[in-house]
Amino acid sequence: MPIALAPFLIPLSALLLSSVLFGAFVWMAGATPSDVYQSIYRGAFGTWYSWQNTLTRAAPLMLTALCTALPARLGLVVIGGEGAVVIGGLVAALAGIALLDAHPMVALIGMALASMIAGGVLIGLVGWLRQARNVNETISSLLFNYICIAILNFLVVGPLRDPETLNKPSTHHIGETHMLGYLGDSSIHMGFAFGLIACLILWILYKHTTFGFAVDMVGGNARAARLSGLPVRKIMLLVTFMGGAAAGLAGMIEVAAVHGRANASLNAGYGYEGILIAFAARHHPLAIVPMAILFGGIRAASDLLQRNHDLPDATSLVLQGIIFVLVLASEAIYARMAAKSGYKS
Fold first, then answer.
1. Measured between alpha carbons, how far is 24 from 13 in angstroms, rounded to an integer?
2. Any residues with CB less than 8 A from the CB of 149 and at least 6 apart, and which?
3. What's the Cα-to-Cα distance from 58 to each of 117, 227, 280, rounded to whole Å?
4. How many folded domains does the chain comprise?
5. Which of 7, 53, 63, 161 falls between 20 and 30 A from 184, CA-CA?
6. Looking at the domain assignment, is residue 26 inside a domain?
């Protein structure tokens, strides 16, 4: 295999092998693999309605994937996207309630900024703990997920609960006028455009600016970058803040485009799926877009698997798990090939 094509062919091979193993799994569960894949395609991409569901689910996935992909350029494995989504959505809801009488554009900007700051500070703290106290970023970011979820549950059940939300404790509604609109006549909310723009901007930032070059230097050899005069600590804090801000914005989108308030629905697993998408895309901002659409389609089609094939509700999670394991394995294979050839993507 030509080493220059390896970054594309190895992950693709992992995805193809995942489909084979998942087919074997559904066959053992009593379903016909070809029929299951047909249902996945129909539920994800078969009709315009399916496409709208897929792209709606892909919007937060693009942003949570950036939460892992951006710090990965520094050699950090951050898995705190779920916590950033939760805390970003909670703070966005509070900002929306506080700006209930403001102009809708002012309220939406305020909610977006509040969510990005909240998510950025959370993941930025992960970067600070790694740089200043040598705390493993994977462990700290994972623990922050549970802390943020606990904070959300405490506040929406207790001090911030709207008394009218009996069955599903939630904050007060941000107001219908403060909800995000849709793209044209579709049911795809503006959050999808936010995700696309974020991926494009960050690709330009990394590939066509001196900041991106500095990030690659720090990620390649932090000690050499420090000796070259680069502010390694500041770069690490800024990059982790940016990753957290992206995931925090995903939380705002869930509040302003889907739920209208903060509740337990913010803990929907988008942050964890973002980790898989980031690795499958090899942390490339533009490659995150098709991967997020693919996994958004899997999410959109999950109900069909249970309804049409009598498969467990968690079947789509099995597919994601298989993909995750094989993508990680493919990364190890690529690293060996690159080390032997001296190639660096």
1. 17
2. 82, 83, 86, 267
3. 22, 41, 15
4. 1
5. 63
6. no
Domain ranges, residue 147? 60-288
Q: Is residue 189 part of a domain?
A: yes
Q: Per-residue pLDDT for the chain (345 aa), expressed as one digit of tens each?
A: 454 555 667 778 888 899 999 999 999 999 999 999 999 999 999 999 999 999 999 999 999 999 999 999 999 999 999 999 999 999 999 999 999 999 999 999 999 999 999 999 999 999 999 999 999 999 999 999 999 999 999 999 999 999 999 889 999 999 999 999 999 999 999 999 999 999 999 999 999 999 999 999 999 898 899 988 999 999 999 999 999 999 999 999 999 999 999 999 999 999 999 999 999 898 999 999 999 999 999 999 988 888 889 888 789 889 988 998 898 888 777 667 666 665 555
323: in domain: no
138 domain residue, yes or no? yes
**In Å, how far from its chain's centre is CA 38?**
26
Give the chain's radius of gyration (CA, Å). Answer: 21
Question: Which tokens hold the place of 103?
Answer: 């102009």
Question: Residue type for 98, please?
Answer: A
Closest C-alpha among 47, 44, 92 to residue 261: 92
Contacts of 289 (CB under 8 A, 6+ apart): 62, 195, 196, 199
